[in-house]
Design brief:
Layout: H1 5-8, E1 20-25, H2 29-44, E2 48-49, E3 58-63, H3 68-87, E4 92-97, H4 98-103, H5 105-110, E5 116-118, H6 126-134, E6 143-144, E7 166-170, E8 172-173, H7 184-188, E9 192-193, H8 196-208, E10 213-217, H9 234-242, E11 249-252, H10 262-270, E12 274-279, H11 287-292, H12 299-312, E13 317-324, H13 331-344, E14 348-353, H14 371-395, E15 400-411, E16 414-420, E17 431-434, E18 443-451, E19 456-460
Parallel strand pairs: 1-2, 1-3, 3-4, 4-5, 5-6, 7-10, 10-11, 11-12, 12-13, 13-14, 17-19
Antiparallel strand pairs: 8-9, 15-16, 15-18, 16-17, 18-19
């Protein structure tokens, strides 16, 4: 997990006999924050975090179970790390997060190689639980799966594992939408917001620690505040985040289209520090499919909110995610989705193949789509989106943008690599920059000179202050 060895592996820890811990964090940024909280709790208890599993006495895997591929990745990683117990230094293997929360004691029976399973509601007890297994005190079970009610606060330190200039900020936990295909309410519980002052306290701490880009995240960011006294809003929170002096970029993820208000859009438009970038997962566009998914909003509503976002924020970059192959998605309904994608021309787009998850309503729906058909539909949309993305990127040639430098590249003549504010880390492509060497985290002005389907090429320019 650690990206900076010196930060997490102080000299005094390098010769410790035991209690060195390697953390594998799988899944989404929200899961990564949980891993960072656990890392800090373990360090506070005297452990040392190593980025090398072969050096670890304890290997901790924070798992994902959102869809079948994520579940498979988690299981594969558990068995990969279990082999290190056989041949390496590792003595205890710990599995945390969504997979244990979902499957409970079943995993204890099926995977005896694991010494401890803990759920999403128990991560704050990680240090005590690992201490217990190191003392061979297993209590009555190797599984500790409580109700998923844990909500982090600023009182919990984090060991930031992203580059030091970028950090995720989780403003809420859980989800109360109960989409028919989704397991999140099962493994994360009902939606619950953090207090605004508490979020701002953490954000100020991140900024004081050198973070320039704060990425606001939750299962649904636009639901923020509904459950709190006085019902504070996401727009109010974003405005206050923008007032933090040392923050340069604020990025908003996971907005629910039915809850994306004019007030939120106007704050994004008005506040210079807020990236003109919105992640709006629409999932589908056919009204019948949206109803079956238990999604709020219709095709007309979704189209209108996208048009309104572009009207209020003319230079906005929009990202969406889709699910193809949902039960009952006929060829005609799929073609409706394809037509909509061509009409709306999203800047960034990702596609999930529908995963028939046990325990969800949709898993019992008739007319399940064959796997090969689902994958073929995904490929069609991604091929079409590549053309759309290429055209959009070509239209950026000649324009000047801020670029957040992330390091050196291996592309001749473009020796630096970074991102525009319209590019979220890990999911939206990068920008290669022709410039003298910069420090990671510097933000410079560049002119776009070339473009591909997903990546851009730019040259540093002087902009009068």
């Amino acid at each position: 997990m650690a990206s900076n060895r010196e930060k997490y592996w102080p000299e005094s820890c390098q010769n410790k006999v035991r209690n060195t811990i390697h953390i594998v964090s799988l899944g989404c940024p929200k899961n990564l924050i949980d891993s960072e909280v656990m890392a800090a709790l373990l360090v506070k208890a005297g452990a040392c975090i190593t980025e090398y599993p072969e050096e670890a006495d304890v290997i901790l895997i924070n798992t994902c179970t959102f869809v079948l591929p994520a579940k498979k990745e988690s299981i594969d990683e558990i068995f990969r790390m279990a082999r290190m117990k056989e041949v390496g230094r590792c003595k205890q293997l710990v599995v945390a997060g969504c997979l244990p929360q979902r499957y409970g004691n079943i995993l204890e029976q099926e995977i005896p190689e694991v010494d401890l399973f803990i759920g999403t509601g128990d991560i704050h007890e990680i240090a005590d639980l690992i201490n217990n297994i190191q003392k061979n005190d297993f209590r009555s079970s190797r599984s500790h799966i409580g109700k998923p009610t844990f909500l982090m606060t600023s009182s919990y330190a984090r060991i930031i594992s992203t580059p030091p200039y970028t950090a995720y900020l989780k403003i809420a936990e859980g989800c109360s939408n109960y989409c028919s295909y989704c397991v999140i309410p099962m493994v994360r519980g009902a939606f619950r917001s953090r207090q605004m002052d508490d979020i701002l306290t953490e954000a100020v701490g991140l900024a004081e620690g050198g973070v320039k880009e704060i990425i606001v995240t939750a299962q649904e960011t636009t639901a923020y505040g509904r459950d709190l006294p006085g019902k504070p809003t996401l727009a109010e929170l974003m405005k206050k985040l923008a007032s933090i002096e040392k923050v340069r970029w604020i990025r908003l993820l996971y907005t629910y289209p039915a809850s994306l208000t004019d007030e939120i859009l106007q704050i994004i438009s008005d506040e210079e520090k807020i990236c003109k970038y919105i992640d709006i997962p629409i999932q589908h566009i056919n009204d019948g499919i949206l109803t079956s998914m238990n999604r709020r909003g219709t095709r007309t509503f979704i189209k209108n909110i996208i048009m309104k976002a572009r009207d209020i924020i003319p230079d906005v970059a929009l990202r969406t995610s889709l699910i193809v192959g949902f039960p009952g998605e006929t060829t005609e309904k799929f073609e409706e989705l394809v037509t909509f994608i061509h009409e709306m021309r999203f800047d960034h787009l990702g596609v999930f193949v529908y995963s028939q998850e046990e325990g969800t309503q949709a898993a019992e729906f008739p007319v399940q789509i064959p796997e090969e058909e689902k994958k073929g539909r995904r490929d069609i949309i991604m091929e079409d989106q590549a053309i759309i993305s290429y055209d959009i990127n070509q239209s950026l040639i000649g324009s000047i943008h801020e670029v957040l430098i992330e390091g050196n590249s291996d592309v001749p003549e473009f020796t630096q690599i970074g991102r525009l504010s319209r590019q979220s880390p890990d999911i939206d492509g990068v920008t290669y920059v022709n410039a003298e060497e910069k420090r990671p985290g510097e933000i410079i002005h560049c002119k776009i000179v070339m473009a591909e389907e997903y990546d851009l090429y730019a040259e540093e320019v002087d902009v009068p202050s």
